[in-house]
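Hey, I was hoping to borrow your eyes for a little while. I'm sending you its amino acid sequence along with the backbone structure tokens. Take your time with it, there's no hurry, and the full record follows here.
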Amino acid sequence: MNDYILARHILEGLVHNLNNHLNLILGYSQRLEKAHPELKESIKIYDAGIKIDDTLKNLIHHLGSKALAFEQELYLNKWLDQELEYLQHDLNIKHHVCIEREDQESSKLLKISPLYLSLWYEAVLLKLSSYTDSLRLKTGICEKEKLSCLYIKPDMQLSRAQIQDLCVAPKCELLGMEAVPIQSAWDSQEKALMGLLL
């Protein structure tokens, strides 16, 4: 766990250093715009800088929430929004996985660790993406057996062995846990993997 916290502090330092350079870019682009209003490129540079700043803030927030396994009150749909945005920083997912979002239920306030949710969700995506070069899937939240669930519905035919592999709970060696407290279950009617939040 200490290594994970250390990595978080290193990341925070990196973001701080990047922000110093980013502030220079933003400041000079504003000065350039005032001095030469006819140059439209200065507005584009400033807008790009603002987007980089937003991306860095979202990334550090997301990684910070994953750094500890403490339970938090959260809405599952909002967590999934943040997770899908975060996953766009993984180039393999960004370029080889097409994700369509569709919630089947409205989100309830839950008490769970965002780290556990991410471990389960990312482990499933990694397994699925290892089965094919180009993955299309639908994902969202639903309710099954009166439990709130995440679900991932791949647009591909899976073998029995692949389904069994997907249902194996990811181990969390980092936290010294045998498995995360999310039960994986295959719904053969929906052809989707459910992550039941216990």
Remarks:
- The helical segments are 2-35, 41-66, 76-87, 91-96, 114-130, 160-167.
- Residues 118 and 168 are 15 Å apart (CA to CA).
- The beta strands are 72-75, 97-101, 109-112, 135-144, 147-154, 182-187, 192-197.
